[in-house]
Amino acid sequence: MFKLLKQKYLKHTSIYQFYRYYKYKYKFYPSFGATGEDVLINKIFKNMENGFYVDVGALHPINGSLTYNLYKKGWSGVNIDMLNENLKFFNYFRKRDTNLNAAISSSSGFTKAFIFETGSGLNTLNKKWADYWSKKINKPFLTQKIKKTTLNEVLNNNNVKKNFDFLNIDVEGHEVDVLKGINFKKYRPKLIAIEIHTKNTKEIFQTQTYKILKKNLYELISHYYQTSFFKCKNFDI
């Protein structure tokens, strides 16, 4: 009823324009993501107060986080980072969450991690990525042998429901291996945010990441800077 009245009587009045100005000035979506990606996530889930997320390569509980806004509105979930030192902050600021020290890949066992420093967004399991950034920023990295596991095992071990709401994957060039460790026949996150590094947007459609998600009935709905957003086929936005 209100929508009809607004459309017919209010929408073109000066009072309504002032209302819109103050609405967007004081009721906006704050961003904690590195480049504002979480604004779109907030809009997609704006009517959901108790959702569940899984954040792979979480790094920091607030700075650069695509899940902190969701946590603030009542969500909870699983945060995963391969450096135990980073989880100290999660255990303090994200006490409702399950915070796990794990390197996520396509199989379980041991692997090499390439570490620039604690808290660095460049730490990775991808040697080519580490070599590229080492030359670019003129900084060496350390190589550590660490345990790895699959996201499937993490989800199983933590009793995550099959159609949980949001999956974020930010693992610096190791994203395809993370996807290969998920059983998409069992787990169907409604929305997936994942980094895809290409020179231009048309190259996204040629990447393994896109092809894997398309094969598993995920639709690319947006791309912002380095992050692509895929929604499950039966999830209506």
Under CATH, the topology is which? Rossmann fold
Please state roughly what percent of the residues sit in beta strands, choosing from under 5%, 5-15%, 15-25%, 25-35%, 35-45% or over 45%.
Answer: 15-25%
Note the quaternary state here: single chain
Reading side by side through the largest sheet, how are the strands ordered?
3-2-1-7-8-10-9
Q: Major beta sheet, specifics? A: 7 strands, mixed
Can you give the mean pLDDT?
89
Mind explaining what this structure looks like?
The protein is of the alpha/beta class and 237 residues long. It has helices at residues 2-10, 14-26, 38-44, 68-72, 84-93, 127-137, 151-157, 175-180, 208-215, and strands spanning 52-56, 76-81, 98-101, 103-105, 109-115, 142-150, 166-169, 191-195, 218-224, 227-232. It contains nine helices and ten strands. It starts with a helix and ends in a 5-residue tail after the last strand. It has a seven-stranded mixed beta sheet with strand order 3-2-1-7-8-10-9, with helices on both faces. The longest helix has 13 residues, at 14-26.
Task: Show the helix and strand layout.
Elements: H1 2-10, H2 14-26, H3 38-44, E1 52-56, H4 68-72, E2 76-81, H5 84-93, E3 98-101, E4 103-105, E5 109-115, H6 127-137, E6 142-150, H7 151-157, E7 166-169, H8 175-180, E8 191-195, H9 208-215, E9 218-224, E10 227-232
Parallel strand pairs: 1-2, 1-7, 2-3, 4-6, 7-8
Antiparallel strand pairs: 5-6, 8-10, 9-10
Brief sketch in words of this structure:
With 237 residues, this protein is an alpha/beta fold. The chain has helices at residues 2-10, 14-26, 38-44, 68-72, 84-93, 127-137, 151-157, 175-180, 208-215; strands spanning 52-56, 76-81, 98-101, 103-105, 109-115, 142-150, 166-169, 191-195, 218-224, 227-232.
